[in-house]
Amino acid sequence: MRVTVTGAAGQIAYCLLPLLARGDVFGYEQPIELVLLDIEQAQTSLQGVAMELEDGAYPLLTAIHCTSDVNKAFVEADVAILLGAFPRKLGMERRDLLVKNAAIFKEQGEAIRKHAKEHIRILVVGNPANTNAAVLAQYASNIDKKQITALSRLDQNRATSFVAKKLKISPEEVKNVFVWGNHSNTQYPDLFNGVTNRGPLPDWLRDEKFLRDEFIPVIQERGAAVIKARKLSSAMSAANAVKDHLRDWFLGTQDIVNMVVCSDGSYGIKKGIFFSFPCYCPGNGTFEIVPHFPWSSFGEPWIERTKKELYEEWEQAFTALFPKSSL
Ligand SMILES: NC(=O)c1ccc[n+]([C@@H]2O[C@H](COP(=O)([O-])OP(=O)(O)OC[C@H]3O[C@@H](n4cnc5c(N)ncnc54)[C@H](O)[C@@H]3O)[C@@H](O)[C@H]2O)c1
Ligand SMILES: O=C(O)C[C@H](O)C(=O)O
């Protein structure tokens, strides 16, 4: 299995690469070859990462290739994990970030179309992840949209862990806590479908004041809180969520998991928009959006807000990429 990781000299990659090499993601019997892409200025650091991978003496890791050439990076790739993105700099508006990253994901989408295996499975992590995935899907035009996903599992893990801590139980016992929409602070973390293996969540966890004043803002702002505390964005937990997302997508799970996927019109979300939905993963890189989880009247305005943000993001990226067209 040939796995391409972009942004491979960055901090998420540093936490993720050992998990891939050890077999935690694709299974303990699956040999993998890693192709590590980063920009020219990061090549010395990338060489250091490759040395450390070699020094791990991982039995499943059959080869490591480092490159700064996007066209070489995706040759014959079975899986692409897209971590590399332009970071937000001081004074940059969200729109500037969107446009900068749209250019990167356009280039990578084209390279995937030309060079990757047709059955490739893609996970976009670099922010703004939903819209980057939508841009990539436009340009990797020979790839079925169901092969392209983005990461919202970190948000689901955060929400699940929050509930487990409140109830003093293991996160394993908490199911069906979902995060809908954009991987941004408009996401809607939803406890109305949540259960534990002892039964439904207690009423106080669904109290509207508690949801509005505590649960929802804590989950929506968790990424910012980590940045404030570490002066760096979350990396260990992001790598762990990448592992969970890919393992479940490839090896299957009975749990309903959050993935950002291309809307097929489910839940009234416009087709083509990449939205975080609850998904069922039977294995082998397949998933189905689970269609029947209710939002409750409390959830509707939150969903509207995140949906609106995603439609606007897509319009901005689309206008930058195709200045003379209209949606
Ligand atoms: N979706 C999520 O849940 C989630 C969670 C955490 C972080 N993120 C995002 O993931 C991304 C990576 O985070 P990080 O902490 O590893 O960042 P980082 O800055 O440590 O690493 C990013 C790496 O990408 C490289 N890069 C930049 N442009 C590139 C390009 N065109 N091609 C290849 N490589 C390129 C950089 O040189 C750098 O080495 C960021 O965009 C971050 O906001 C997403
Ligand atoms: O990198 C960020 O802006 C935050 C990150 O997406 C996170 O959720 O931790």
From TrEMBL:
Catalytic machinery residues: 183 (proton acceptor)
Alphabetically ordered keywords of this record: NAD, Oxidoreductase
One Gene Ontology term of the molecular function aspect: L-malate dehydrogenase (NAD+) activity
Domain of life: Eukaryota
Domain Lactate/malate dehydrogenase N-terminal, first and last residues per copy: 1-147
UniProt binding sites for NAD(+): 38, 101, 125-127
Family matches, as Pfam families: Ldh_1_C, Ldh_1_N
EC number: 1.1.1.37
Family recorded in the similarity comment: Belongs to the LDH/MDH superfamily. MDH type 2 family.
Protein name: malate dehydrogenase
Organism: Galdieria yellowstonensis
